[in-house]
């Protein structure tokens, strides 16, 4: 609205108020007839009704800034039950898998008697919880249905879903699973850029007309005066305008070579460079999706005089890789709150954060399969070394230092000493970064299962490079990644960079589909003959188990480091956790080493806890 139109509106409003006030005060009305006065009153009331109806139908548009503090940096839990299916279909899928797992768990508890376990489930005698038993026996009376229905409504689920949750709690107890839970906060969707009317004054114009119309019809001067005051407020609203966006935003990241897991402080300063006071100024910094705010707030709402500034300070938890900050989002509102302008000013100062993987002092044993290169693995053959292996007959050309002189002194027969030769192993560390491997932690921590798998891969690679083995890195991911085995400091730096920055093992899943068959054939072609595989995987489904068993069948010794995904204690989460327990047992029965890395446990402690039970 132009300045002339605003001035005319204000002047006209004042004239209307003056006239209405004169009439309300009993001043001269000239030649106005009663019929005309009634017509004006009815006309005003009618316009107010239409205005109120229009206001009810109108959409309000209040800018909503993103809330980085409430962001869940972990992908949602992948349970494989079909997120797009109806609740009833999902409940029946959960019930089918939960019943099978319960049968296996009860059979294991009762010495392998699957028939007895099946009978107990059918009869409901496997638990003393009638709601849990009814999940598989059906409704057991009207009273049971009523009680479970009321409890289900309180929990916000179906009757079957409630019963499955109760049955899952019993299954978790049978399997010794934890019951940690986490409720991620919902995040708001930010408003699109541009200028928007807020709609906060919707219906106020109709209210002013209603006051004037009813006051005229009822001959109530007070109502007419109130309508005049409303007209003045509308004039003020029309004269208000959204300030021009002229702000300076500076961001400073207080970090000196941060490692994964460190807390990093970020400071954002916004300054008003206009010549007007900003009565409503809101800012939210563009925190990357892969970082989470752990302390403070990445937002500010304030008023700024010309030349004044405000500072936002918050802390984020550093996550491996390179993180580019987005432009901050700013909302400026006018003094009357009628409109808002949303824009993204360019921030000066720091715009990115690079985070490295920490080092871990780890002793990671591998199998005795070796290469022809020298290293620290004891080979099953004699040669140059330090540990005695065997004696053999003397051969021309054997060095004098290898002759068994003690035996020669007693028998006058020459023999040659052989020592156990130490050779290098070829190790390929495989990171499971399939979309199904990304699980949100249930204990409130910020590391996903793939984050922990990458940390384990870095530790294993460093440990085997320290042992003078040749080490490579691969990824089970929609985006293929393979670094051939090698050694040396330059190769160590290369592996570190790949694990920190490759999109195949990024903090969020790579785009595309993962196929077991083609991936196995590709990996089998890339692996050197006899190479050992150390796979870092949460073992969240059977696909990765098939790949590992295929590799073992093709002559590659396999070791698994499995970070616990920490599923939630719901029925579907219990199914996922229990199936993982059975996968761990199946791998061990197949002769594959498995180190389960539990939440709250260090990786060296997890490997040391289980290595005593590993065979050579």
Fill in the keyword field for this structure.
single chain; alpha+beta; Immunoglobulin-like; five-stranded antiparallel β-sheet; 16 helices
What's the helix and strand layout?
Blueprint: H1 3-24, H2 34-57, H3 87-109, H4 114-123, H5 130-137, H6 142-155, H7 159-175, E1 194-197, H8 204-218, H9 221-239, E2 247-254, E3 263-272, E4 278-286, E5 292-296, E6 299-304, E7 309-317, E8 321-324, E9 326-333, E10 339-343, E11 347-349, E12 352-355, E13 374-383, E14 385-393, H10 405-411, E15 415-423, E16 426-432, H11 449-466, E17 470-476, E18 481-486, H12 489-501, H13 516-526, E19 532-536, H14 542-553, E20 558-563, H15 571-589, E21 593-597, H16 603-611
Helix pairs in contact: 1-9, 2-8, 3-4, 3-7, 3-15, 5-7, 6-7, 7-15, 8-9, 11-12, 13-14
Cα-atom radius of gyration: 37 Å
- CATH homologous superfamily of the largest domain, by name? von Willebrand factor, type A domain
Order of strands, main sheet, comes to 18-17-16-19-20-21
Shape, per Cα inertia axes? flat
CATH topology of the largest domain: Rossmann fold
Biggest sheet statistics = 6 strands, mixed
> How would you state the average pLDDT, rounded?
75
Low-confidence stretches: 8-16, 27-33, 39-45, 52-60, 180-190, 370-386
Number of strands: 21
Q: At CATH's second level, what is the architecture of the largest domain?
A: 3-Layer(aba) Sandwich
What's the total helix number?
A: 16
């Amino acid at each position: 609205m132009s300045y002339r139109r605003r001035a005319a509106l204000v002047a006209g409003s004042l004239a209307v108020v003056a006239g209405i006030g004169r009439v309300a005060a009993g001043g001269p009305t000239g030649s106005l007839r009663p019929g005309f006065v009634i017509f004006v009153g009815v006309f005003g009331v009618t316009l107010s009704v239409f205005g109120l109806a229009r206001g009810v139908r109108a959409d309000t548009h209040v800018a909503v800034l993103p809330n980085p503090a409430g962001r869940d940096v972990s992908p949602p839990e992948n349970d494989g039950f079909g997120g797009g299916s109806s609740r009833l279909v999902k409940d029946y899928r959960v019930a089918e898998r939960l019943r099978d797992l319960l049968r296996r768990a009860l059979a294991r508890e009762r010495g392998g008697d699957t028939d007895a376990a099946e009978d107990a489930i059918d009869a409901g005698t496997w638990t003393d919880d009638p709601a849990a038993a009814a999940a598989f026996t059906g409704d057991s009376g009207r009273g049971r249905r009523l009680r479970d229905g009321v409890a289900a409504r309180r929990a916000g689920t179906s009757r079957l879903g409630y019963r499955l949750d109760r049955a899952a709690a019993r299954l978790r107890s049978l399997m010794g699973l934890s019951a940690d839970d986490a409720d991620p906060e919902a995040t708001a969707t930010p408003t699109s850029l541009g200028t928007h009317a807020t709609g906060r004054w919707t219906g106020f114009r109709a209210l002013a007309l209603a006051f004037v119309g009813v006051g005229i019809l009822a001959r109530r001067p007070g109502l007419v005066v109130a309508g005049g005051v409303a007209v003045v407020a509308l004039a003020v609203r029309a004269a208000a305008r959204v300030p021009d966006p002229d702000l300076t935003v500076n961001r400073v990241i207080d970090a000196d070579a941060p490692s994964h897991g460190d807390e990093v402080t970020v400071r954002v300063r916004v300054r008003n460079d206009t010549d007007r006071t900003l009565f409503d100024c809101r800012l939210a910094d563009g925190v990357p999706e892969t970082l989470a705010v752990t302390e403070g707030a990445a937002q500010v709402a304030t008023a700024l005089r010309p030349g004044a500034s405000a500072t936002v300070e918050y802390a984020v938890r550093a996550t491996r890789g390179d993180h580019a900050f987005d432009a901050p989002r700013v909302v400026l509102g006018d003094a009357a709150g009628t409109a808002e302008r949303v824009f993204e000013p360019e921030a000066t100062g720091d715009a990115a954060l690079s985070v490295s993987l920490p080092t871990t002092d780890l002793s990671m044993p591998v199998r005795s399969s070796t290469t022809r290169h020298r290293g620290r693995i004891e080979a099953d053959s004699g040669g140059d070394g330090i540990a005695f292996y065997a004696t053999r007959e003397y051969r021309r050309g054997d060095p004098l230092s290898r002759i068994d002189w003690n035996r020669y002194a007693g028998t006058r027969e020459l023999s040659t000493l052989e020592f156990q030769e130490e050779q290098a192993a070829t190790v390929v560390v495989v990171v499971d970064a399939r979309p199904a491997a990304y699980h949100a932690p249930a204990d409130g921590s910020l590391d996903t299962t793939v984050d922990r798998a990458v940390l384990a891969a870095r530790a294993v690679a460093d440990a085997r490079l320290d042992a003078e083995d040749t080490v490579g890195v691969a990824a089970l991911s929609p985006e293929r990644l393979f670094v051939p085995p090698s050694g040396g400091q330059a190769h160590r730096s290369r592996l570190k960079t790949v694990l920190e920055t490759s999109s195949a093992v990024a903090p969020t899943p790579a785009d595309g589909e993962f196929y077991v068959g083609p991936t196995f054939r590709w990996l089998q072609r890339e692996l050197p003959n006899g190479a050992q595989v150390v796979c870092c995987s949460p073992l969240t489904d059977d696909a990765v188990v098939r790949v590992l068993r295929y590799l073992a069948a093709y002559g590659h010794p396999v070791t698994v480091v499995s970070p616990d995904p920490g599923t939630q204690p719901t029925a579907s989460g219990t199914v996922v956790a229990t199936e993982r327990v059975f996968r761990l047992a199946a791998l061990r029965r197949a002769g594959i080493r498995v180190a389960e890395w539990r939440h709250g446990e260090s990786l060296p402690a997890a490997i040391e806890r289980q290595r005593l039970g590993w065979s050579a």
